[in-house]
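Session log. Operator J.P. requested a structure for one protein chain; no other inputs attached. Running the standard single-chain path with token output.
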Amino acid sequence: MQSSICHDDAPRLLQLKQDEIHLWCCDDTQVKDAALLQHYRTWLDEVELGRLRRFHFARHRHQFLVTRALVRYALSSYLPSTGPAAWRFGTNDYGRPMLAHPGMVASGLEFNLSHTHCLAVLAICHSGELGVDVEYHRRPCDATLLSDRFFSPLEARQLKALPESQQRQRFFDHWTLKEAYIKARGMGLAIPLSSFSFDLSAPGAIGFGVEPEAGDRGEGWRFWQLRPNATHKIAVAHRAGESAVMTKLRCLQVVPNVSIKPVDYTVFNSTR
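Structure written below.
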């Protein structure tokens, strides 16, 4: 896709309802316009520019630039008074990115970003704990070995009970969910991956349980898994406050500063 710059750095205002999570999906390999990429650089702060320069390979610099532009452009779509270059970010004690400026925190926006080969996914909602993970599931892996090392006993048993031809796909089903959950908690790998379990034994349904060492009672969580294409899987984790209504997903295919198009991705697993 060859792009042309839209000079309106604050795109049209998008409405984010209280019961929605928006998933912004961008294939960075399709963003090729040199002028557009240079424009993205003007949005980055000094910390981001420093990180950009430290990447050894051009493909990694490109991916980082596009994903940072995606975050800034998306946030400005809900708060046009704050342009993409104005956002400021920090991290919590576990390194999770978060909005840093008090006025930006007051916007009430929660976000989480994940990226892999050819695809970046940004999740945004108004409140609660939010995590997203996207994985390229065509890459090789030793599913049984990794499940023994990282999964709960329940998850490992379920995976090994499948025919060998299905085990790699089940590994990525579990892996995306586990990554989305620990990112939503904001603690990453400080939470032992074997201390919580996803039960995928019922077709289309996601069961969830936690052990005491996870530091969570496990109540109020909702999970979704989606297929944006034939090579990737996305998992979303969200826990809202007690008064929140059921949450819906809205998916958007995006080239930052160029186009936003609603898309209908297949949800193949979810909590009931």
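Operator note: Residues 24 and 217 are 30 Å apart (CA to CA).
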